[in-house]
Specification:
Two copies of one chain form a homodimer. Chain A has 110 residues and is an alpha+beta fold. Chain A has one domain: Winged helix-like DNA-binding domain superfamily/Winged helix DNA-binding domain (Arc Repressor Mutant, subunit A), CATH 1.10.10.10. Chain A contains four helices and three strands; from the N terminus they run H-E-H-H-E-E-H. In chain A, strands 1-3-2 form a three-stranded antiparallel beta sheet. Chains A and B meet through helix 1 and helix 4 of A and helix 1 and helix 4 of B. The first copy, chain A, binds a DNA duplex (30 and 30 nucleotides) through helix 3 and strand 3.
Amino acid sequence: MPAKQANLLQGTLDLLILKALATGELHGLGISRRIEQITRGTFVVKPGSLFPALHRLEEAGWLSGFWGDSENHRRAKYYRLTKAGGGQLERETEEWTRVASAMTHALKAT
Amino acid sequence: MPAKQANLLQGTLDLLILKALATGELHGLGISRRIEQITRGTFVVKPGSLFPALHRLEEAGWLSGFWGDSENHRRAKYYRLTKAGGGQLERETEEWTRVASAMTHALKAT
DNA sequence: GCGCTCCTATCGGCTTTCGATATGAGAATG
DNA sequence: CATTCTCATATCGAAAGCCGATAGGAGCGC
């Protein structure tokens, strides 16, 4: 049994994807790279998590996707935040802040 | 369809239980109340989540449980942190801090 | 052509959380 | 006593989400 590696906290993935797209459209792997970058390598999103999540978010109306060409001339599916997605990003950011603050408070308790 | 209420982030429950027991032994419902208290009401742990989690943590060796009498003279199962559980609490606290800091950084990104 | 990298995709398994429900026993009321 | 309330533990099934493994197509260098 290999050492259990740090899994993503459930629920943070959606928020990270929305945030990754806040600065402009990206294709799937680009989103993955951006998340790794803005979290300073703490979160590494695997394909098996990424693509189902992208489809889920598109289904929910937070993202809209379209096919294009990547910077390496490959077929790639780009995603962009919808207006609703922007609102969702705000709500989830607030929610995260609430939760994080409660956790921090709890962990300091005596 | 009622509004979807704030679910616990997966993974935070174990940490909160360990932390709740750091100051002394408690029975199941007491742990639940303590968590609600130290998170200022942000996290409410339901029985359907609590008891499976307690059994899981005991199975893992972080907690040890024993039967006793509650402050209301009812049969109650008390839990206390094991030595291993103390180490686990430390590790999970560090892990949470790492994650929270990465998220905070990510959410500030431009 | 061959291998390498890039890019998207899916499937099965596992863990975890929740809602609903059940059971039992002490306390309070009449 | 009998009923009802609260405390306390427990379990089950449903739903969700992450991951490892795997697949396949297409451009690029050699």
